[in-house]
Amino acid sequence: QVQLVESGGGLVPAGGSLRLSCKASGRTFLIRRMAWFRRAPGKDREYVATISKNTEITGYADSVNGRFTISRDLVNDMLYLQMNSLKPEDTAVYYCAGQGPINGGYDYWGQGTQVTVSS
Asked: Which of 32, 45, 107, 108 could bridge across to 39 with cysteines, CB 3.0–4.6 Å?
């Protein structure tokens, strides 16, 4: 139904920046809210940021607030995460997710992109 593909991960020194992208395809009209999550080695997946369907409402985890910016291009079905002032603790696999139309959960997930921040 919906496919999400992330890109833009890589290796960056502490204090550096990266921009993650997520391309949605298929039945993209089904997607409501979108979000970024991450999973660090040995840890549970955690929420990073979210954006509403109309892009007017955004939210961030305390750990990234003020450093990361989520944005969405509705015309091209793209989701972005601009990450500035990166820290080693931001090292993780980052996933984009899309909220489905039925139960409010994140039904659609990408395969993830690795972000590694060196100290």
From this structure: 45
- Assigned token pair, 10: 């890589």
22-44 per-position pLDDT tens digit: 999 999 999 999 999 999 999 99
Cα separation of 59 and 113, whole Å? 21
Tokens of 46: 């955690």
Neighbouring C-beta atoms of residue 75, cutoff 10 Å: 5
**DSSP type of residue 114:** E
Secondary structure in 3-state letters for 64-94: CCCCEEEEEECCCCEEEEEECCCCHHHCEEE
**CA distances (Å), origin 68, targets 36, 102, 111, 115:** 11, 29, 21, 14
Residue 29's φ and ψ, nearest 5 degrees, are -65, -15
What tokens were used for 30?
């089904």
